[in-house]
Design a protein that fits this description.
This protein is mainly α. Helix content is 92%, strand content 0%. It is rod-shaped and about 115 Å long. It starts with a helix and ends with a helix. Keywords: Coiled coil.
Amino acid sequence: KYSSVEELLNAAKACADKAEQIKSEIDLAQSELSNAKSDFDSKVSVENETAKQLKSFESELENKKSELDIVLSENNILECPDFNLLTEDSIKELKRDAETFTDSLKKSRATVEACEKSVEGKQREDVLKINELIDSYTSEKEKWDNLYTAGDRSLHNNLKHLQQR
């Protein structure tokens, strides 16, 4: 196929250069993939922290609602002299406050659940993408490693053959 040793060496050098270029591209892609995974992990961490804060707020609202329920219970109002000063309007206002707390609690719960679902879905989606990229790069690297090895073997055999002449 090659008419001279020089042509053979040039072809082998071109093959080696191409393999080296592809190896560099694969290394760069793996570095970018690693950076993307690191960015993703930090975003997940922030989202998890937000979910924790929302749960804390939800717990605080739940505690306030419980306290208010105790305060508003009829027995408690009748037994505590301070609460005998409450008017019907102030009791209605306290009940409205309790309803507002309950509404806030429901909204917080919904936000926490939505946040958790978003984080879980995003994690699964990003992990699948990362795994696909890793598989793709690994397959490409193996292909070029095989080509490089075959080219190296071919070069070695051709050089051996030329030396025997």
